[in-house]
C-alpha cells in the first residue's frame, strides 16, 4: 500500500509586540481561575481573559491583561518556561500570547487562527509541554511545534489514522518517545527525535480509548482516562492505580509530584505514587476547582469562583486567598457611576427579552478604588440583576432592578428590602416572574421603573415608600406578549419619563398631565431605523439621543411628543472621507449612550466604543479590541465619572477604564489641582489639570516664563503629556500652570514638579 504523507507547515505569523498603555486601567475579575503555572519564584494564574503573577516571598501581585497587550480572548491554558523566562498563554480561539516578564511586552502569535483548513472549534489550545528548545502545543487538531530559541512555529503533526485532525489533550516525552493523550484516538506515540513526525504513519496507537492527559513521573508514564482512572503505562498495557468518582479537571506533574484535581478534591502523590496530600475538606467555601499544583512546599489551587488559593501540606483546611481585588465577573451588563464610585451588574436577557436560563450573579461596587462584591446569596438569591439607580440625595442607597425578581433596596451595601408580587402592586408574567428593567430617580427623589410583559408597565416608588402603578396597555398593547420588552428609562428636568421598548419605539409619560405618548415607526412616522429602542440619553441641550438595534437618532425637544402625535426623530448626517453624505452609525446596534461634561457622546455598540463631538459630526475616538485594550468589541455600557473624567467601559468580556479629559466644569477655580504631582521618573502617562471652568485658558511655562504648552478646556479638565508642544519631554524642574477664565475675570496659578 502506498503511504500518503501529509505535510503541513506553519509560517511564523505575529502581530507587533505590544506594551502597556498608560491611559487605560484594568478592572477585570480575577476570581475565575482557568489554569496555574509556576517558576522564577512566581505563581502565574490565568483568569478568564487575563493573567496575574504572585511573587513568593514579597507577595507582590502583577496583573497581565489587555492593558499590557494580551489578546483578551478566553484563556484555556498557560505555561511558564523557566529556561527562557517566558509565559505562554493559550486561548480557546487558537491565539497564543508570549509574555516577557522582564520587559513586560507581549508577542501575539496568530498562526493557528489564520489557517482556514482548521475549523474554529479545532483551534483550541489545550496544553503546552517544553522539551529541549521546543514547545509542543496540544490542540484540538493535533500537535504543533514551537521553537523557543527563535519564537517561530515549526512543523504540525496530524496524527489521526489517515492523517486527519485529532483532538490532543496533553503530551509528554519519556525515553525519547513523545506520547499524546487524545480524545477518541487512544494514546499515541512516536520517536521524538524523528525528522518525520509530520508522517502520521509513524505514530503508533495504544487502544482506542479517550484520555484526559498523560504525564511522566520518576521514569514512568501515567495516564488519566476519560472514566477518571489513573493508570500507569507498562509496555503496551495499562495498570490501574487509582479511581476518582468525579471528572478529573487537571492532571499534572510539578516538582516530582503528581497532582490530580476534581471540582472539589485535590490529591497529590510523591514520585513513588504514595499519597502525600488529599484535600477534600473545604469549610470556608464551596469549591469549584479547575487546577492545582505544588510549588516550594505550598499548594496552590485555582477555583472558578474564589480565585487563586494557597495552603500548606500540614494545614490543608486553612486557605489564603490570593487573587487581586476586582469585580465578581467579567460579563458586564450595565454600569452606574457617581464620583469615585461604580456599580456593576451582570444580568442578561436575549434579543427577545427572554431572561432564561436565569443568571445568579450578584453585583459589584467600586468605592475609592476598592471593590465590594455583593454575592447572589446576599441579595435574597435574586436572579437577573440588570440595572442600578443611585439615590442622588443619599448615595448610600441604591436600587437594583431584576428582570425576574422585582426591585431591591440596597443601603450601605446590604439588602434592606425587596419589592415583588408579595409586598407591592408590581405585576408578574407568571408566578414570581417580575421583569423590572429600566429604573431612575426624578428630581423629587421618586424612583420610576418599567415592568415588561404586564398591563401596568410603569411604576413610581415615592420617597416615602408608597407605590403607584400606571396602566400602559393602550400605549404598549399586549401585556402578555412575549415581545413586550421594555428597556432603559430616563427622566428629564421637567419630570417627564422616557423609556425604550422592543416593538413600540420610544414611550413617554408626562406626570403633570397624566399623558402617555410614543415615537414609533420608520420614515413615514417616527423616523426610527428600528422600533427596538435599546438605549436613551438626554444631553446638556435637552436633546434625546436614541439608540436602536439598527442605528442612532436624535429627538430635538422630546417633550413635544406629548402635544404632537407626529413627532419624529432625526438622523445625524456626516460626510465620509470622500465627501459623500451618510448616516452616522447606520445599522449599528446601540447598547448605551452617555453624555460627558463637554456634552460629547460616548456610544456603546457591538463594534466597539465611539466618542463623538457634541453634535455627532466628529468622531473623536473609536476604540475597538484591535486598536485599544478593550477586551471585546461587544460594548454593553459606558459611564463617565464627571469628577475625574475617567470613562468606564463595560463589555461582554470585562471592564476597563479610559483616562479621559472631560470633567464637569465648575463655577470657580478654588479646587484646581494637577496630578500626578510630582511627575516621577518612569511615569509616561498624562498629567491632568482639573477643577476648571469651561473655556478656561491653561498655559504651562517653565520657571523662567517660557511657554511649553497651551490649551483651552472644553469641560472641567485638560491633560498634558509633559512635552513641550508635543515634541520633546520637558526637563526636570518646576512648571507654572497659569489659568484664566473665558471672560478673564478669574485667574489661578498652580505648580507642577517634574522629576526625570
TrEMBL record:
Keyword Iron-sulfur: no
Keywords: Signal
Gene3D superfamilies with a match to the protein in the record: YVTN repeat-like/Quinoprotein amine dehydrogenase
Domain named PorZ N-terminal beta-propeller: residues: 43-204
Pfam families: PorZ_N_b_propeller, Reg_prop
Signal peptide: 1-17
UniProt cross-references to InterPro entries, sorted A to Z: PorZ_N, Quinoprotein_ADH-like_sf, Reg_prop, Secre_tail, WD40/YVTN_repeat-like_dom_sf
Protein name: Two-component regulator propeller domain-containing protein
Species the sequence originates in: Mesonia profundi
Amino acid at each position: 500500500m502506498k503511504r500518503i504523507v501529509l505535510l503541513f507547515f506553519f509560517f511564523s505569523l505575529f502581530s507587533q509586540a505590544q506594551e502597556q498603555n498608560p491611559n487605560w486601567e484594568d478592572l477585570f475579575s480575577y476570581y475565575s481561575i482557568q489554569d496555574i503555572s509556576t517558576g522564577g519564584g512566581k505563581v502565574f494564574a490565568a483568569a478568564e481573559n487575563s493573567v496575574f503573577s504572585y511573587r513568593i516571598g514579597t507577595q507582590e501581585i502583577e496583573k497581565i491583561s489587555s492593558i499590557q497587550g494580551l489578546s483578551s480572548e478566553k484563556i484555556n491554558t498557560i505555561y511558564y518556561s523557566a529556561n527562557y523566562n517566558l509565559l505562554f498563554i493559550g486561548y480557546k480561539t487558537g491565539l497564543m500570547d508570549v509574555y516577557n516578564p522582564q520587559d513586560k511586552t507581549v508577542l501575539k502569535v496568530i498562526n493557528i487562527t489564520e489557517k482556514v483548513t482548521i475549523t474554529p472549534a479545532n483551534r483550541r489550545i489545550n496544553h503546552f509541554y517544553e522539551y529541549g528548545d521546543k514547545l509542543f502545543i496540544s490542540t484540538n487538531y493535533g500537535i504543533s511545534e514551537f521553537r523557543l530559541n527563535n519564537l517561530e512555529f515549526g512543523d504540525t503533526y496530524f496524527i489521526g489514522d489517515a492523517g486527519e485532525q485529532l483532538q490532543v489533550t496533553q503530551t509528554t516525552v519519556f525515553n525519547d518517545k513523545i506520547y499524546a493523550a487524545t480524545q477518541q484516538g487512544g494514546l499515541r506515540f512516536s520517536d521524538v527525535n524523528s525528522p518525520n513526525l509530520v508522517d502520521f504513519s509513524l505514530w503508533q496507537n495504544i487502544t482506542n480509548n479517550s484520555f484526559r492527559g498523560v504525564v511522566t513521573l520518576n521514569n514512568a508514564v501515567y495516564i488519566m482516562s476519560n472514566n477518571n482512572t489513573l493508570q500507569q503505562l507498562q509496555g503496551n498495557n495499562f495498570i490501574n492505580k487509582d479511581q476518582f468518582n468525579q471528572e478529573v479537571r487537571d492532571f499534572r506533574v510539578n516538582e516530582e509530584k503528581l497532582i490530580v484535581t476534581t471540582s472539589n478534591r485535590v490529591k497529590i502523590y510523591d514520585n513513588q505514587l504514595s499519597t502525600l496530600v488529599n484535600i477534600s475538606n473545604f469549610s470556608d467555601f464551596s469549591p469549584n476547582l479547575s487546577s492545582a499544583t505544588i510549588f516550594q512546599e505550598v499548594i496552590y489551587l485555582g477555583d472558578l469562583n474564589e480565585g487563586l488559593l494557597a495552603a500548606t501540606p500540614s494545614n490543608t483546611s486553612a486557605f489564603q486567598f490570593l487573587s487581586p481585588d476586582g469585580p465578581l465577573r467579567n460579563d458586564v451588563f450595565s454600569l452606574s457611576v457617581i464620583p469615585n464610585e461604580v456599580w456593576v451588574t451582570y444580568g442578561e436577557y436575549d434579543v427577545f427579552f427572554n431572561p432564561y436560563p436565569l443568571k445568579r450573579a450578584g453585583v459589584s461596587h467600586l468605592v475609592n478604588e476598592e471593590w465590594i462584591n455583593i454575592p447572589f446569596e446576599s441579595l435574597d438569591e435574586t436572579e437577573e440583576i440588570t440595572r442600578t439607580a443611585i439615590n442622588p440625595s443619599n448615595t448610600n442607597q441604591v436600587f437594583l432592578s431584576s428582570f425576574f425578581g422585582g426591585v431591591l433596596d440596597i443601603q450601605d451595601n446590604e439588602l434592606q428590602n425587596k419589592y415583588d408580587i408579595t409586598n407591592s402592586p408590581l405585576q408578574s408574567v407568571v408566578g414570581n416572574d417580575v421583569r423590572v428593567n429600566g429604573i431612575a430617580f426624578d428630581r423629587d427623589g421618586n424612583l420610576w421603573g418599567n415592568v415588561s410583559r404586564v398591563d401596568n408597565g410603569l411604576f413610581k416608588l415615592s420617597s416615602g415608600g408608597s407605590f403607584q402603578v400606571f396602566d400602559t396597555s393602550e400605549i404598549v398593547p399586549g401585556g402578555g406578549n412575549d415581545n413586550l420588552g421594555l428597556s432603559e428609562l430616563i427622566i428629564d428636568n421637567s419630570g417627564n419619563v422616557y423609556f425604550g421598548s422592543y416593538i413600540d419605539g420610544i414611550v413617554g409619560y408626562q406626570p403633570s398631565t397624566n399623558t402617555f405618548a410614543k415615537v414609533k415607526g420608520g420614515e413615514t412616522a417616527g423616523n426610527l431605523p428600528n422600533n427596538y429602542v435599546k438605549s436613551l440619553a438626554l444631553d446638556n441641550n435637552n436633546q434625546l439621543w436614541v439608540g436602536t438595534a439598527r442605528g442612532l437618532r436624535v429627538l430635538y425637544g422630546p417633550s413635544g411628543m406629548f402635544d404632537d402625535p407626529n413627532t419624529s426623530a432625526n438622523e445625524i448626517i456626516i460626510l465620509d472621507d470622500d465627501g459623500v453624505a451618510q448616516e452616522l452609525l447606520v445599522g449599528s446596534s446601540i447598547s448605551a449612550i452617555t453624555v460627558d461634561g463637554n456634552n460629547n457622546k460616548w456610544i456603546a455598540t457591538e463594534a466597539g466604543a465611539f466618542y463623538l463631538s457634541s453634535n455627532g459630526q466628529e468622531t473623536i475616538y473609536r476604540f475597538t479590541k484591535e486598536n485599544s485594550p478593550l477586551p471585546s468589541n461587544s460594548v454593553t455600557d459606558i459611564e463617565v465619572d464627571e469628577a475625574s473624567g475617567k470613562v468606564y467601559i463595560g463589555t461582554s468580556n470585562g471592564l476597563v477604564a479610559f483616562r479621559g479629559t472631560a470633567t464637569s466644569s465648575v463655577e470657580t477655580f478654588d479646587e484646581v489641582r494637577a496630578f500626578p504631582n510630582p511627575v516621577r521618573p518612569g511615569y509616561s502617562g498624562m498629567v491632568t489639570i482639573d477643577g476648571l471652568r469651561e473655556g478656561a485658558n491653561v498655559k504651562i511655562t517653565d520657571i523662567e516664563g517660557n511657554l511649553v504648552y497651551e490649551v483651552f478646556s472644553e469641560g472641567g479638565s485638560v491633560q498634558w503629556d509633559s512635552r513641550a508642544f508635543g515634541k520633546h519631554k520637558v526637563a526636570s524642574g518646576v512648571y507654572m500652570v497659569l489659568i484664566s477664565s473665558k471672560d478673564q475675570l478669574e485667574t489661578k496659578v498652580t505648580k507642577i514638579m517634574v522629576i526625570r
